[in-house]
Amino acid sequence: LTEGGATNFHAGFQQAFYALERTIEQEYTSGCNVAILFMTDGVNTAGPETDEVLYLINKSTQRLKSLYSRDTKIFTFSLGAQADRLATKKIACSTNGIWTPVDDFDGDLVGAMASYYKLFASGLGNETDFTTWVEPYEFISSADRECKASRAVDMV
Question: In terms of Cα–Cα distance, which of 36, 32, 42, 40 is closest to 14?
Answer without folding.
Answer: 36
